Amino acid sequence: MDDQQLLTINGVSKGFPGVQALSGVHFELRAGEVHALVGENGAGKSTLMKVLAGIYHQDSGAIAIDGRAVDIDGPQAAQDLGISIIHQELSLMPDLTIAENIYIGRERRRGFGFFVDDHDLNRRATELFDHLGIVLDPRAKVGELLVAQQQVVEIAKALSFDARILIMDEPTAALTESETNTLFRLIRDLKRRGTGVIYISHRLEELKAIADRITVLRDGSYIDTLTTDETDLRHVISLMVGRHIKDETRPLPADGAQSTVLEVTGLSTKGLLKDVNFDLRRGEILGFAGLMGAGRTEVARAVCGADKADAGEIVLHGKRVKIKTPSEAARLGIGYLSEDRKRFGLMLDQDVHFNILISSLPRHANALGLVREERARQESRRYVDTLKIKTPSTRQRTNNLSGGNQQKVVIAKWLLRDCDVLIFDEPTRGIDVGAKEEIYDLLDTLAKQGKSIIMISSELPEILRMAHRIVVMCEGRVTGILDNADADQEVLMDYATRSGVHGGITA
């Protein structure tokens, strides 16, 4: 690692209406260094990086590159200074090809400049992929890719610029272990070339593998900078949250006497699912585990009517039901919280009140169909208070909230709807350790109140901590259903990597 000071951020502050996002923050990056930036959601990490990327302009403070003061007055200025960013939220255009997304605005043209040279685009993308060790068809439409593949395209797009400072905001959130290893190989290669990498991640275990130093922010303020090799993650967590985080626990075994709320039999789809069977009991958290592509999300989408099931039966409260759309599922008391809350769970340009109320509008309307606004706003405020959603008011635009608080708004929406069955798909993805604890406590409380919860998660420690029983899937099939007491990470991974049905399925 070079000791050359590549970037210095000194006393940077940034405020928004009702929110002081940054207060006198300090940060430095050396050439050839991976410097992790950590903190709870709302700590100011993404805001600081958006200031550096020219998306926001700081209210005060100074930024220097190579010891020279710079004014980053827009994304193009940042790019000209050699700064490239991979955003936490994907910014790809789904109707364009992979190559078109990577080189948008940098296309070579033919026919007197009237036509894009697609052959050249695809050739350049192929050469980039070969260099990065990525296997993708540059001609494929981005909208047809899985989330993990779209993240890889974002990474390739950022690396296609000759960046000296590369910002990675949650780059591995949707990546498999092998894809993460590929990313780490790329980062180490960038380090050798002298590129400085700012790495933001809530997966703190990654930091030991990739980061040289760690800077902690809390509530928009600088807390400390640590050398990774000389600290431990528990200390990092304590600095992030400013309070003690409970040790990992296991839930009590599921009560076999609980009544069955939902029973799924023979669920199949043409694309992936094959004869999926499981049941969900009252007051239970039923975890779904498996590797990416195993079919966990597809089960949730088929159950709630977002995807068409080609075979199978769903029994809800002892009655056979046919669910063709998510709205029908909601009417039956099934709420689905998608893994992509930004795209499917929220209207980001609307305020908190609107997003909480949207699924329950008929219940808050009078005989003329007009919403009883004061009563409705009382209800939304009640859930803001109950779930401890950090917002100046219910009139705050939802896109101004942190990821954890946005997730709570989605949960509030379905709680107001009073759903009996709640399906949480990756409920803590992109959420910091402190907010995770709050989500965990909330799910525990809901289960104790008699709600029945399906929890899909890619993090095995999370599944083991939360689920009473665990459904494991591989290649569209259920390979095991285990009581929590019979499971550990090795057992779950064994089930998740075998396509044949195990004999250890429990009732």
Task: Give a nutshell description of this structure.
This protein is an alpha/beta fold and 507 residues long. It is built from 17 helices and 22 strands.
Explain this structure.
Helix content is 32%, strand content 25%. It is of the alpha/beta class and 507 residues long. It has 2 domains: 5-241, P-loop containing nucleotide triphosphate hydrolases (Rossmann fold, 3-Layer(aba) Sandwich), CATH 3.40.50.300; 260-496, 3-Layer(aba) Sandwich (Rossmann fold), CATH 3.40.50. The protein is globular, with a radius of gyration of 24 Å. The model is unreliable at 500-507 (pLDDT under 50).
Question: Layout of helices and strands, plus pairs?
Answer:
Elements: E1 5-16, E2 19-30, E3 34-38, H1 45-52, E4 60-65, E5 68-70, H2 75-80, E6 83-86, H3 98-102, E7 109-110, E8 115-116, H4 118-132, H5 147-159, E9 165-169, H6 177-192, E10 196-200, H7 205-210, E11 213-218, E12 221-227, H8 233-241, E13 260-268, E14 276-281, E15 285-289, H9 296-303, E16 311-316, E17 319-321, H10 326-331, E18 334-337, H11 341-345, H12 352-357, H13 373-386, H14 403-417, E19 421-425, H15 433-448, E20 452-456, H16 460-466, E21 469-474, E22 477-483, H17 489-496
Parallel strand pairs: 3-10, 3-11, 6-9, 9-10, 15-20, 15-21, 18-19, 19-20
Antiparallel strand pairs: 1-2, 1-4, 4-5, 7-8, 11-12, 13-14, 13-16, 16-17, 21-22
Helix pairs in contact: 13-14
**Strand-residue proportion:** 15-25%
Tell me the CATH superfamily of the largest domain: P-loop containing nucleotide triphosphate hydrolases
Give the proportion of residues in helices.
25-40%
Radius of gyration: 24 Å
CATH architecture classification of the largest domain: 3-Layer(aba) Sandwich
Tell me the count of domains: 2
